[in-house]
Specification:
Number of strands: 9
Low-confidence stretches: none
Radius of gyration: 15 Å
Oligomer: single chain
CATH superfamily of one domain: Jelly Rolls
CATH topology of one domain: Jelly Rolls
Mean pLDDT: 91
Helix content: under 10%
Shape: globular
Distance between the termini: 42 Å
Number of helices: 0
CATH architecture of one domain: Sandwich
Largest sheet: 5 strands, antiparallel
Strand order of the largest sheet: 1-2-9-4-7
Length: 116
């Protein structure tokens, strides 16, 4: 299987690493490791990811357009340059009223109880 990560030690224009496809959500791994995933996604107008939960926090940054992120039935409109963190175990839906692109960062380690 071909490695789908972006080439390392090279400059990339983030928004250009994934295209819009009519009627689709496209997800591409930027980095994929046992300890976490960084992915970029494009959503065509009217598309959504179905309701789900994850055992890990998920940082979402919108890099183009505007998204509706519903967390535990509370709607949030997030625009270009803005971020939101979907908490672990929260039911969430990502929706596109208009097309948009986003980066998703999930870190799967570090959830151990730590003292500061």
């Amino acid at each position: 299987m071909k490695n789908s990560e972006l080439e390392k030690s090279c400059m990339h224009e983030l928004a250009d690493t994934v295209d819009y496809i009519p009627g689709s959500v496209v997800i591409k791994a930027i980095l994929k490791k046992k300890t976490g995933v960084v992915a970029i996604s494009s959503f065509d107008s009217g598309e959504a990811l179905s309701s789900k939960t994850s055992p890990f926090d998920n940082l979402i940054q919108i890099i183009e357009g505007e998204a509706e992120i519903i967390i535990n039935e509370e709607s949030n409109i997030i625009g270009t340059g803005q971020i939101i963190i979907i908490p672990a175990h929260a039911r969430n839906i990502v929706k596109a009223d208009k097309r948009f692109k986003m980066v998703s960062i999930i870190i799967k380690s570090g959830y151990e109880d730590i003292s500061i």
